[in-house]
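Tutorial sheet, problem 5. The three components below are modelled jointly, 1091 residues in total.
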Amino acid sequence: MNNVKLLKKLILTSLLMFAFAFALVPLYDVFCDITGLNGKPNMEQAKVSANSDESRSVRVTFITHAQAGAPFKVKAKRYSVDVSPGEMERIEFIAQNLSSSDKIMQAVPSVAPGRAAKYLHKVSCFCFNQQPLTSKGSADLPLLFYLDETLPNDIHEVTLSYTIYDITADVKGKVASNSNSDGELTNENSI
Amino acid sequence: MRLVKLSLWLLLSFPFLAVGTSQYNLPVGVTDISRDVYELHMTIFYICCVIGLIVFAIMFWAIIHHRKSKGAVPAQFHESTKVEILWTAIPFVILIAMAVPATKTLIAMEDTTKADLTIKVTGSQWKWHYEYLDHDVSFYSVLSTPREQITNQDEKTETYLLDVDKPLIIPKGKKVRFLMTSDDVIHSWWVPEFAVKKDANPGFINEAWTRVNETGIYRGQCAELCGKDHGFMPVVVEVKEPAEFDQWLANAQLEKAQAAAAEKASLDLTLSKDELMTLGEQVYMANCAACHQPTGMGLPGVFPALKDSPIALGDVKAHIGIVVHGKPATAMQGYSKMLSLKELAAVVTYERNAWGNNTGDLVQPSDIQESMGEAQ
Amino acid sequence: MTTIAESHHHHHAPTGIKRWLFTTNHKDIGTLYLLFALLMFLTGGAMALVIRAELFQPGLQFVEPHFFNQMTTVHGLIMVFGAVMPAFTGLANWMIPMMIGAPDMALPRMNNWSFWILPFAFFILLMSLFMEGGGPAFGWTFYAPLSTTYSNDNTALFVFAVHIMGISSIMGAINVIVTIVNMRAPGMTYMKLPLFVWTWLITAFLLIAVMPVLAGAVTMVLTDKYFGTDFFNAAGGGDPVMFQHIFWFFGHPEVYIMILPAFGVISTIIPTFSRKKLFGYASMVYATASIAFLSFIVWAHHMFTTGMPLAGELFFMYSTMLISVPTGVKVFNWVATMWRGSISFEVPMLFSIAFIVLFTLGGFSGLMLAITPVDFQYHDTYFVVAHFHYVLVTGAVFSIMAGAYYWLPKWTGNMYHIGLAKAHFWLSLISVNILFFPMHFVGLAGMPRRIPDYALQFADFNALISIGGFAFGLSQLLFVAVVYKCAKGGQKVPAKVWDGAEGLEWEVDSPAPYHTFSEPPEVK
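Model answer (structure tokens):
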């Protein structure tokens, strides 16, 4: 093989590996889905469950965590429920905007233990969408979920945690940045 | 040559000497798990020592006896499939011997089921927050070593950098489950005596658990680089007898109710400028000075200055809003959970009137309340 | 180093600064790499001394915590990307063509580029320390979101610098591969390649595989911070832990990138001074290849505490433990090479023996770190700091020193001052152990990494560590003196500097002529 040919191949390999770094992002998600690596439950709407396993009872606990700088107070009306795998349950959350301006909130779910994540199916969840809340306003946000019947027998307790983010600036920023992104880009180029 | 032997001897005996004095070894700890971990650590350590001794003994034998200066003539061999297979296989066996106890301990460590008590642990720059989930008690736990000790103006006390204002309290002999999360960057909650170390990741929860066999006070530190004051966010856990723990918990709930009542009462207060400035300075030094600096100058490029800043000189409501709710995606967190209305009012007043920020604005607890939404 | 040029005149070769700027000669570029690495080693070392000065006593004495974090970060980056990697690339440039009987590297102009972009990368990195808010303070591992949302604009400079370093290493690696594949002298089959060439060939493939992944990781950090992407931001559906997976997918092979060439150097030196052929050549090659392969499936052992399912923890524990098998084979082979040899203790051999002992110590602590349940205790403590300094300083750096003392006479034509070199060795050996050995104990006792101040029970050992640190740092000035004196002059050496040495590089004159093997040698 001559030098140029080999050089081209090797450059191509390194470019492919660069692309592979970005391919790791979706691969990671797939990997997490299979193994429950990061406790991130499925964000897609699940189908309604067909039947349930009444012989078992699993305690599901709901906690929320407003991230630093997110002026929200979100709380489940019930701290925990006992459900049988397959049984559908509806939980109401109350969300309040504590600030005196309109805000957009995003809830990000996380499940402990992580391997339970893939067995938690959400038929509807306020975390699927961004939730706008008016100044000082509040809203009732429902969660409709069930646990898969194939939930491993040694899991007796599942904690579903929502981290609450204030994404007002991001959402508005993305709309606004189209108009002033030129300025940002020149900043970048000057470095 | 003698020097080599001597240094080698020192080198090999040093670990045993140091490990012998347990202060410089892993702590045995006060949980079953930590004992297992300690045993595992020592087992592997000894295995490594034995392998090392054998290999180095052979090497130094060669170094001493197969020297050119002693007239050694080189042998001609340079491979032996038998020997090579043997020393590939033996390590395998040793590894399996190590992996078995390690796997057992690991499985025990990861079993978080059937906990008696669940505590949510939240890391933030640079303090811990504890929430007793089923008991409606929560508080921040902040380094309480005085700044003068850190800057070498005062004598350092025995628990230097390992003291907090409010330690986490847990009952002895009960399975306590920790749910870890973070408010900003990644932190890691670690108590060596429990053999518990788990990262607190923003946006996710992690689980860990412990069951402590002995009462006492146990100290650890944040183990994941989390910014400027990573070295200044200790973890302190006090383990009490279950009865004492219950009493403490009841007290804490009572105190919470009293604090709420005090908050309500403070709404009617109108504090004088002197009162606000004195209290404000205390609160500022304890909570704000780490970033914004005692001089209010901040650290340029990292933490903004408050002196002459548009926020401290501008709209009072916006200023209160940032102190109360924080600023998203920055190190500036909201202090509504951490400070009382009175303290918040005082610190905002202080920031608007200290260091030549002479706005003359006085902020009262009721002003804070207005920004905060409904009472907590 | 001017002796090289003077000894062989080439009328077309420019002189002065232009010679070095435009050179495409593998020996010149090798020299540039090595000198640059030395400069960076001293720079990064100076930062380490700032760290050790601050940690000499509890309390804050000299620097602010924020600056302390910048020091730990930039020290790490400079030592990894500025000192160890360029030093090995320098050795590769100098030695690979001479070892395989090639006249030069296969792609000489690219070779010039891959070196000359490097100073700019480090200039940018170092200058970022002077910007408002200071330089990178998020650790050399730049975990998100500390390096994205919570950092100032130094992130942009950091990312740009890392990109340049990455491009430089990739170009260097491509050159090494093309050279080894295409430029071997007739008869130099793969299984006759000197082991240093073999280890570099495998290292080069590792570089091509993982440096682009690092480039990807820093690009994601950049877009997260400035262009609104959410790779590592949970609010937008990302995951900060994913950063660590991507980083360590690069990071663990990176560790072997820094140690495999070291194995090559040691495998070259030990037989020379044992006057005996290397034991188990083939198994050395296979061991190197299997270490390289395993390095891709162990990355998550750096992140056991991030919260992983049990199965994951077990997998990464077992795979990591496996690495000790091929590594053990290497150590056994070196010992077997020395066994019944005719050993003498020239300076390169002293460094190599120290390498074997101390690297193995680092290997043992590595094995201990692999055991997940105990790793929870060791993780992010000084035990880890002790571990990777044993493998990187008494491992990689000692092997570079050994290599330098081994080939310096070949490069300059002069023997160095042996007394000074031995003094350098003994001072380094003693001080490096005072420096790093007690770190094991403060780590076990519970001292976390990357803290500017510590609790009182760690005070005695930290004082000792700092003394060792300053002693080790100052000892390295002796190395500078030895190299400088050797380049200026000294006792002339024959072509075959060491009586037990084997290989094509010893068949050319000392100093090595500016052009060697213009006619390929015949390899039997």
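Marking note: Chain A touches chain B through 36 residues (CB under 8 Å). Full credit if you identified this.
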